[in-house]
Amino acid sequence: MNAVYAARKRTNAVLLTISGFAVAFGLFWLAWILGTLFYEGGHALARATLYYEMTPPPGADGGLANALLGSGVLIFVGTLIGTPVGILAGTYLAEYGRGGWLTGATRFLNDVLLSAPSIVIGLFVYSVYVARVRHFSGWAGACALALIVVPVVVRTTDDMLKLVPNSLREAAIALGCPTWKMIVTVSYRAARTGIVTGILLAVARISGETAPLLFTALNNQFWSTNMNAPMSNLPTVIFQFAMSPYEDWHRLAWGGAALITLAVLTLNIVARSLFQKKD
Fold it and tell me: Per-residue pLDDT for 59 more than 90?
């Protein structure tokens, strides 16, 4: 028994050491990436002009105000379109379609869409919308982002509603409550923290998406709130400025990347805080 115990202790020590090195390796690269990002973009973040001046021509001073506005509008509209669809689809899977073949097929297709590259979604929206109306637009960009939001919200809503005890549903139905009202007043209320967490995670995911916007919203150098025309957005501006040979554009690109990173980090912290509060 002592030999077996000693062998298990050696195996445990070896595996703990390997796991510790793996964690340190991952944290090293994460710290390097974040350190480089905020070192390069910190100067731009500290300048007030970044937030209220428009994207400049090469060699001029400016900011990212039009890109920030465009990204905010596209994210808001995309979330507004995708969230109700995702919640209703997840509600059907968890509440109405239990055990049916359509439920299994829908969950499988949702998982496929969840892991699909965003550039494929951008090309899809380009082919079915942009190519037909013959111009880029904010509506096309919002539709592409909504298609990314939907599978995330569907998966989260489905999982959270399945965690609601059936006894709560049975108690509501036993009192004569209709199914739709039971879902709204009992299931949604019990799972609302998890559903909100899924929505926040979906917003965090679409905040930095560049590929679908290149084929849909494209870009705009000017201040524009017209959703039926090309609209500036932060990921596309970062891509354009980072690929340019101009040093002042590079500084703005670093600042925009740092802004997106801070926004995504904040949303993830809020989402995890809500989930922990639920526990």
Answer: no
Q: Which helix (H) or strand (E) holds 270?
A: helix 247-278
Distance CA 66, CA 225 (A): 9
pLDDT, position 154: 96
Give me Rg for the CA atoms of the chain.
Answer: 23
Distance CA 146, CA 143 (A): 5
Least confidently predicted of 27-41, 176-190, 213-227, 263-277: 263-277
In angstroms, the CA 68 to CA 245 distance is 23
pTM exceeds 0.85: yes
And the tokens for 100?
């049916």
Long-range CB contacts for residues 246-254, cutoff 8 Å, separation at least 24: 246/58, 246/59, 248/56, 248/58, 248/59, 248/60, 248/61, 249/58, 251/40, 251/41, 251/43, 251/44, 252/44, 252/50, 252/55, 252/56, 252/62, 252/63, 252/64, 254/37, 254/40, 254/41, 254/44
Distance CA 149, CA 152 (A): 6
Render the burial of 246-274: b for 16+ CB within 10 Å, e for the rest. Answer: eebbbbbbbbbbbbbbebbeebeeebeeb
CB 234 within 8 A of CB 63: no
Express as a percent the part of the chain with pLDDT over 70.
Answer: 98
The amino acid at residue 180 is W
- Distance, CA of 138 to CA of 140 (rounded, Å): 5
